[in-house]
Amino acid sequence: MQFLELNAQYYEILNTPNIHINTMINLIENTSKHKNRIAIKSNGQSYSYQDLLVASESVAVRLLAGRNDLEEAHIAFLVTPGFEYVQLQWGIWRAGGVVVPLCTKHPLPSIQYVLEDTQAEAVIYSKAYESLLSPLFEHDEYQFIPFESIIAQAGDLPEVSMSRRAMILYTSGTTGNPKGVVSTHQNIEYQITSLTSSWEWQADDHILNVLPMHHTHGIINVLLCALWSGACCEFLPKFDAKAVFDIFCKKEVNLFMAVPTIYFKLIAYWNELPENQQESISNTLKDFRLMVSGSAALPVSVLEKWKTISGHTLLERYGMTEMGMAISNPYRGERKPGYIGQALPNVTIRIADENNQPIEAGISGEIQVKGPNIFKEYWQKPEATQKTFTDDGWFKTGDIAVFEHGSYRILGRNSVDIIKSGGYKISALEIEEILRSHPKIKECGVVGILDDEWGEIIGASLILQEETIDLEQLKIWLKERLPAYQLPRKYIFQKDLPRNVMGKVTKNELKKMF
Length: 514
Ligand code: MLC
Ligand code: AMP
Known about the structure:
By secondary structure, the protein is of the alpha/beta class. Helix content is about 30%, strand content about 25%. It folds into 3 domains: about 5-160, Rossmann fold; about 200-315, Rossmann fold, CATH 3.40.50; about 420-510, ANL, C-terminal domain (GMP Synthetase, Chain A, domain 3, 2-Layer Sandwich), CATH 3.30.300. It is built from 16 helices and 25 strands. The strands form 6 sheets. A 9-stranded mixed beta sheet has the order 2-1-10-9-11-12-13-14-15. A 4-stranded parallel beta sheet has the order 4-3-5-6, sandwiched between helices. It has a 4-stranded antiparallel beta sheet with strand order 16-17-19-20, with no helix packed on it. α3 crosses α4 (about 85-95), α9 packs across α10 and α10 (about 260-270) crosses α12 (about 300-310). It is globular. The relative contact order is 0.09. Mean pLDDT is about 95; it is low at about 1-20. Bound molecules: malonyl-coenzyme A and adenosine monophosphate. Malonyl-coenzyme A binds near residues 215 and 218.
């Protein structure tokens, strides 16, 4: 058993006879089939499924603190992606709580927003984030728990039914502040199993996870599909092209999933290498079982270049926080460049017009989805939840697509105010609201500008209260309020924004001005 890093007291529990997995969550029950396999690799350590059970039990017992069941209390946590993250995720679930993973790159105001919106009962954090969070420590509505204070202990845990709420992830929309997307254990299981069956996940798979762990892509498609399958998920907490290729060249990893920007960056790095290193990497990649791209449109140029480097046609799929994955190119059949494929198992798709009426193949419309993978609700936003479903229960994605030649092709979104940059969904309106709170800014307009590397980058047009503004000062001011991926990369200064006769800002006109 390789369980070196955690508290020595765990050893005692490890040596006790088989731990009883007292839960109804199938993902966790599943581990009885592969307790001794390696589940997680992080920080140079390997952890088995048994290790994960023991370590997560300690978290659960600590959180319960004598109660029988957390009864869906919201537990937020801020730790670097790795074993500790999974230990907390499973521990919270096993105690009957709802996980609220926080973004390790967010500035304090964004974190505070999530804590307030979810009304988190507790926040578990590791040492690395103590100084960031410390201004909040005086708030007595949340209990702050240092990760390092969780000691090994075993105890009775509740039975948690699959219909209960399990996770809240935050997503930006076209109105208001980010919304908490609530998924049940059942939703999550369907999101996992449609992928594990379609992409033929196996226990001897080994995937590298370089993605942020507060979003669906890294959590469901990478981590939880691996754990469902008895496979190994290796963490690299911060994406770095050299580190990724170094890990690949150890020849353990056989699966990789990432956003198009990451493939773009890997290609750029590979292009600069000497020929012998390029060849060695290419030879390694050829042995992979599967490489997937998603979260944003995969440019055909990236797909083609990656194919010349790796021998793999990237499998492009389409999904969303509210539903996991819905449409995917096939694992075994033809993967069409520029297309996202066909509906996944248990997911029903239709293309609908503005009146939510289904329309025939070949005509563009909104992707609407039904299935047990669809989320339960936006946390405490019943109106927003209701608005995102049609009267007859179809989830309205806001993505525009066409079905042609047997596959779906994405054409865009029905709102210019949603920007996808580096695979992150960003609301132009949220950035505008922050810019408008700057004393020197009278009005502003934020748009996404097409970019080869990032998909889109953020452009901001500013109308000033005064003649000038110190741009460097403004950037520093914004950095305290927004994560790096939400920062405007291009600025223009205007006397007024382009508007239509009704006075509404015409964002498509504004885009052209960059
Ligand atoms: C960072 N930078 C950007 C940027 N983000 N520049 C332009 N646009 C952006 N979006 C700049 C930084 O300011 C910095 O510049 C430099 O790039 C490096 O910053 P970083 O923070 O170190 O970036 P990096 O780690 O390289 O990030 C790139 C990335 C990251 C691609 C790894 O964006 C990422 O992890 N994206 C994945 C997001 C994701 O998981 N989405 C899935 C959502 S779920 P300087 O000048 O300061 O050096 C979903 C559903 C589905 O969508 O279908 O999957
Ligand atoms: P998020 O809300 O962060 O989960 O992002 C979901 C959005 O990402 C979808 O609504 C799409 O707009 C976009 N998306 C995901 N996969 C793809 C893809 N393969 N091609 C184009 N857009 C995608």
